[in-house]
């Protein structure tokens, strides 16, 4: 018995070291080996799901559903009518697939409503630009904001040129690396621009190419 307890203690430490909490009340007596075996026993189920999605009846289904969402519903900000429509489509899809316990639950969420947005380059020539306000953007005053721009390609460049940014519109012309890296300009761009005293910020689309 003493041996068993010591053994469990060692295994527990290992699980902590690997950064995962595997042990929980009822399974606290199980060894890694047993857990590994249990996970391995689902191999066939996992293979069935993968085969269904990659080669079988569900081939291309995720892609087609995503295409349907982006083509027919479009942007789906929290709390919007279009998100509601997207949820209804997914709800119906999951029911059609015969999944268990498919149900909706009411939630409360703050929401942001799009107003009107426009941007015009005034110098060196007048040019109307196609822009889209990012969800949760703070509106400009009714007369808008007119200012010189400071174009930067990175947050590092913005830091380096911080004294030039005060009172300007910061334009991020960041190269596209990958989504997780480049989306930081969408997430943090306005905040970083505000920190150096800019009046507003614009970013390029977070995409590998633009159809505009
Ligand atoms: C999935 O897409 C590929 C590539 O477009 C196509 O060859 C294949 O027939 C599609 N499969 C199904 C089940 O529609
Ligand atoms: C994205 O690019 C960064 C920087 O090159 C890299 O560290 C990261 O692993 C990449 N992420 C993915 C998901 O490829």
UniProtKB/TrEMBL annotation:
Family as reported in the entry's similarity comment: Belongs to the peptidase M28 family.
Claim: Secreted is one of the keywords in the record: yes
Organism domain of life: Eukaryota
Entry's localization field: Secreted
Gene Ontology biological process terms in this record: peptide catabolic process; proteolysis; thyroid hormone generation
Annotated signal sequence range: 1-19
Species this chain originates from: Crocuta crocuta
A single cellular component GO annotation: extracellular space
Classification via InterPro entries: CPQ
Keyword Zinc in annotation: yes
Gene3D superfamilies in the record: 3.50.30.30
Protein name as it appears in the record: CBPQ Carboxypeptidase
GO molecular function: carboxypeptidase activity; metal ion binding; metallodipeptidase activity
Source species taxonomy: Eukaryota, Metazoa, Chordata, Craniata, Vertebrata
């Amino acid at each position: 018995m003493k041996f068993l307890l010591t053994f469990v203690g060692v295994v527990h430490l290992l699980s902590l070291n690997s950064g995962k909490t595997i042990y929980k009340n009822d399974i606290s007596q199980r060894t890694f080996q047993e857990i590994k075996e249990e996970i391995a026993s689902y191999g066939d189920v996992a293979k069935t799901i993968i085969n269904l999605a990659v080669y079988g009846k569900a081939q291309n289904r995720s892609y087609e559903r995503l295409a349907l969402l982006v083509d027919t519903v479009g942007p789906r900000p929290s709390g919007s009518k279009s998100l509601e429509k997207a949820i209804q489509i997914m709800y119906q899809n999951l029911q059609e697939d015969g999944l268990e316990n498919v149900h909706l639950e009411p939630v409360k969420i703050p929401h942001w409503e799009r107003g009107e947005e426009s941007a015009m380059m005034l110098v060196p020539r007048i040019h109307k630009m196609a822009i889209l306000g990012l969800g949760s953007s703070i509106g400009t005053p009714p007369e808008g904001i007119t200012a010189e721009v400071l174009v930067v390609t990175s947050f590092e460049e913005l830091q380096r040129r911080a004294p030039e940014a005060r009172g300007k519109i910061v334009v991020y012309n960041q190269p596209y690396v990958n989504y997780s890296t480049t989306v930081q300009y969408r997430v943090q761009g306005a905040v970083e621009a505000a920190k150096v005293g800019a009046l507003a910020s614009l970013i390029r689309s977070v995409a590998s190419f633009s159809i505009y």
